[in-house]
Design a protein that fits this description.
Blueprint: H1 12-34, H2 41-74, H3 80-111, H4 142-165, H5 170-194, H6 204-209, H7 212-215, H8 217-231, H9 233-238, H10 240-260, H11 270-292, H12 301-329, H13 337-370, H14 373-377
Domain Acyltransferase: 13-358
Organism: Olleya namhaensis
InterPro entries: Acyl_transf_3_dom, Acyltransferase_3
Length: 381
């Protein structure tokens, strides 16, 4: 397998999804930095689009990883050794950056003389938001726990069920995908039934949207997209624009419905608790036939590709390290409009510079090792 920077190994449309997702998140965090108390409709829309950026990452991750697992199944590589190799490759891609940034965040607690959160050890095992809301520390890590467990649970279920039924194939992959999706929806239903006992200061986002057991399905909608793209490739390509249109209509339609009915997730709405997150993921899934078939040689392709490559580093450093450090030293509310613009420029430039350095001198060398013959030789026998 070639390096992730090899152009012919990349799909431009999927790079667009990554770049769009991280830019939406950065724009959302920019409003938190500059307009933390604003109730402006425009600011709220930008912050909302930031949450959609995370959902884009979820479905995209599931689509890519689901495709890898399908290829393993089709190649009859379903022994535990094969899944171990899959996990090792994923962990070398995600864990080094995560633990480095986690340690930096812990260091900043002492630099800023901030209280150390209780049960800090959970962050080292991706348990900080397993079934309850996580502490207000390294807050962006909530999505990484969901991804790590999604990558762990799927192969385990494929392996165990493969042993039970003595065969692995596309229908077992589909069954595992639907099982995980159903399980997450069921957990959200149980949450909704019990929500009446919640305290007045309940936060839907912290208590449900960012909790692992309620969100595993968000990755597996990507698995579902990978299943359709691989086994029904002609239809996936032929109906890409129809599917894209349906996705846009579904996404816009559900949010028009929310606006017309003045629905609010913090008011214990069953619609939000049980259905909303699935609808958003499905609407994103429907756009993927278009994105996954989008090839381009446009001038800005290199910019899109670079942002895509740096997106994981950007996601890890932009908030807890860059934004909160700026807020610690600068009282934003005391600044003039021009000074705020300068702070915003500092936030964006610092984020991209630090992310570039993190990717170039830490993340990418580890990825090169992962793709090396030496690493592959560990699993040759």
């Amino acid at each position: 397998m070639k390096s992730i920077t090899a152009k012919k190994q990349r799909v431009f449309g999927l790079d667009v999804v990554r770049a769009l997702a991280i830019l939406l998140i950065l724009c959302s965090h920019s409003t938190i930095l500059i307009f933390p108390e604003s109730q402006s409709t425009l600011i709220k829309i930008i912050q909302f689009l930031g949450t959609i950026g995370v959902d884009l990452f979820f479905v995209l991750s599931g689509f890519l990883i689901g495709g890898i697992l399908i290829k393993q199944i089709e190649a009859k590589q379903t022994k535990f050794k094969n899944f171990t190799q899959f996990w090792m490759r994923r962990w070398l891609r995600t864990l080094p950056n995560y633990y480095l940034v986690l340690l930096i965040n812990i260091g900043l607690l002492f630099v800023f003389n901030t209280e150390v959160p209780k049960q800090l050890y959970k962050y080292f095992f991706f348990l900080q938001n397993f079934s309850n809301k996580q502490a207000d520390f390294f807050t962006e890590s909530w999505s990484l726990t969901i991804e790590e467990f999604a990558y762990l649970i799927g192969p385990i279920l494929l392996f165990v069920l493969g042993l039970i039924f003595k065969k692995s194939g596309k229908w077992l992959f589909l069954a595992v995908t639907l099982l995980v999706i159903s399980s997450a929806i069921f957990h959200r239903f149980i949450f909704d039934v019990s929500i009446t006992n919640s305290p007045h200061h309940f936060s839907w986002s912290k208590s449900l949207r960012k909790v692992l057991v309620y969100r595993l399905d968000s990755i597996y909608y990507g698995f579902l997209a990978a299943f359709i793209a691989y086994y029904y490739a002609m239809a996936w390509k032929r109906y890409k624009w129809i599917s894209f249109g349906l996705g846009v209509v579904l996404f816009v339609g559900v949010h028009v419905y929310i606006f017309i009915n003045s629905l609010n997730p913090d008011h214990f709405s069953t619609f939000f608790n049980v259905y909303y997150l699935s609808i958003v993921s499905i609407s994103i899934l429907l756009t993927f036939p278009m994105f996954s078939n989008w090839r381009s040689t446009l001038r800005f392709q290199k910019v899109v590709t670079n942002i895509s490559l740096w997106s994981y580093s950007i996601y890890l450093v932009n908030y807890s390290i860059i934004l909160l450090s700026i807020k610690h030293y600068v009282v934003i509310s005391d600044l003039s409009a021009l000074s705020k613009l300068g702070v915003l420029g500092l936030y964006w430039s610092a984020t991209f510079v630090v992310s570039y350095l993190l990717f170039s001198f830490f993340e990418y060398p580890i990825i090169k090792f992962r793709d090396s013959a030496r690493f592959k030789g560990w699993f040759a026998n």
